[in-house]
Amino acid sequence: QIFNQHNAEALNLEQTFHRMAQTEPNLDHDVSWFLLPSYWAKMVVALISFLCFANSYDGDFVFDDSEAIINNKDLRAETPLGDLWYHDFWGSKLSSNTSHKSYRPLTVLTFRINYLFAGGFYPVGFHVINIILHCTISVLMVDVFSILLGGLQFSNKGRRLNLAPKSSLLAALLFAVHPVHTECVAGIVGRADLLCALFFLLSFLGYCKAFRENKEGHTFSIFWVLVSVILGAIAMLCKEQGITILGLNAVFDALVINKINILEFIQKLLRKDKTLENAGLLRKGLLFRITLLMSGGASILYIRWRIMGTGPPAFTEVDNPASFADSLFVRAINYNYYYSLNAWLLLCPWWLCFDWSMGCIPLIKSVSDWRIIALAALWFCLIGLICQALCSEDSYKRRILTLGLGFLIIPFLPASNLFFRVGFVIAERVIYLPSIGYCILFTYGFSLLSKQAKKKRILAVAVLGILLINVMRCALRSSQWRSEEQLFRSALSVCPLNAKVHYNVGKNLADKGNQSAAIKYYREAVRLNPKYVHAMNNLGNILKERNELHEAEELLSLAVQIQPDFAAAWMNLGIVQNSLRRFEEAEQSYWTAIKHRRKYPDCYYNLGRLYADLNRHIDALNAWRNATVLKPEHSLAWNNMIILLDNTGNLAQAEAVGREALELIPNDHSLMFSLANVLGKSQKYKESEALFLKAIKANPNAASYHGNLAVLYHRWGNLDLAKKHYEVSLKLDPMAPGTKENYNLLRRKLEQLQKKGG
Fold first, then answer.
1. Phi-psi region for residue 207, left (φ > 0), alpha (ψ -120 to 50) or beta?
2. What is the spatial distance between Cα 524 and Cα 10, in angstroms, rounded to a whole number?
3. How many domains does the structure of the chain reveal?
4. GO: which molecular function terms (predicted)?
5. Domain ends where: 598, 632, 665?
6. Are residues 360 and 402 in the same domain?
7. Does 422 share its domain with 458?
């Protein structure tokens, strides 16, 4: 019975479709595809979109997730909610010179809610929300494509009719399973694109609702137009691309609602034809609605400009080399080449990479470069489509092609380098919205082929094959986004010339302790980009730890020469110079680092170590105190203060510092150990014993903890317990300094006591 009911609904849809076909052409005439009731179509799209990315649910925080989420103070409860409106996406103040000016407070707010409900940085909740968002967007695409491909018409009861059920299902499936969306879904930072797309689509659907005739007989609703503007503003507060929906709503209004012939309209405008009004500009309130959209968009941009400030974002040449080219010709050629690569990613999303900068795509500097062919192919296709969209006698064809090109190009404009420099060469995430236009054009092309093909089933099977391949590609790519190791290694075959790829592989290996392999990748990163200061700094660090000090010094000196304000490199150079016993140079390097980064607790800590080596005890204590003021949980600085005060006989001061430190970091066993030593020397044996035992409980395999507790018991006269802990210490570390001698002294004393007792 249920099956028959669904068949009946499908039949009704088909009958409706045939009735509409008598008045206006429709893609579904020629598309050989499945006809499902709206509810089932949406269920199928939701299920398939879920299957594509489900395996990313338990992935790690990878790549940009660290900066946008883990290191972003705006996610933490102690940061006032109001600060989100004055900070960029990465948690920096918008007024800062280093800010990227990416203003996405609503996206950051969702991260904060994720963090709050998860009780910490647990990635599963973040990933699940991203998957749900993509599924929701894919379902909404069924309605959006039904309007874009079938037109906007309502029943007598005010219900919107789906006049292209087969075409809209195919287009929504193409969108749901496109592999280029993996970065947005599997990468948590892609939340910005997903939220932007969600409100982008809601704004469009809200605008469509404005044309549902109400009981008063008004042809459109101002309320829904204003709702659409508000939803567009919300989309922009999730990501900058969201503002483009207002322009697309205007295009849709002109083409679909007012059925304007753009070429005819332009010709009349140029001729100042008096019949211009009849061409549709003022008909049905178009001019009024466009004024509302433009006013709303201008107001939103003005408010954003006021909050963001007037300064442009700070990007470097390695982020977007074409934008730094001196020649306008070189810039134009390379920008167009980037557009062709974006188009190719939509057509053939096989070669995907988390980062396309740093030499991944070498600049085109001459017209003799064979890659010029890609530009020619792109513009040949675009000009052909534009000519058909403007000049075709078929009004339906003009509408579909113009809408397809509009949704392909307009959302891409903020990433095009035309209005301002962007901080990337290619970013797969920015193609999420433009892929709507691609799906419209693909579906239209499929309908044309179906119309000409004699064996339509073969064509339908071919499209099914494309969908299946895309599903498998999505699943594979999602698995690569589960961990940084897989993600970075997957890029080596796609962008072998990208220094950042080699840098990230090396960093991942170094974090896992594989320094030898990390050195290889860091060296390759420096070879590919001789000005890559971060790779030099990390390579210098590893060489420093391996005691290859002279090469480390060369690399770090070169890094600060290339980037004089690179504070981390100055600090590491100071550490190397200290190890080479060039103390004055080391001190100067540390102070240069602090000059460029005033709040630098690690640098103050290393400066304190230098002063301690030079027996400048007061300077050392001051430096470590600065480190703890800037970073109260800086355990090493606290520990060194306690030890230095202990070694210089300032037991009371050492005890006070130790107690202060433990109040701030109560579970740090190294601080317990240091304070226990001080208390033991002050003959506060009971309290010292308690701290030693607590430290041993936290770190039972530390030989020194057992050894020093044995010394305490030895002094205290508790010889049996002293013997026990000496033996544990020697078992853990037979070469422990002083322990064996103390143990032998204790044994002799015990033997003497036994003889006296005998």
1. alpha
2. 60
3. 4
4. dolichyl-phosphate-mannose-protein mannosyltransferase activity
5. 598
6. yes
7. yes
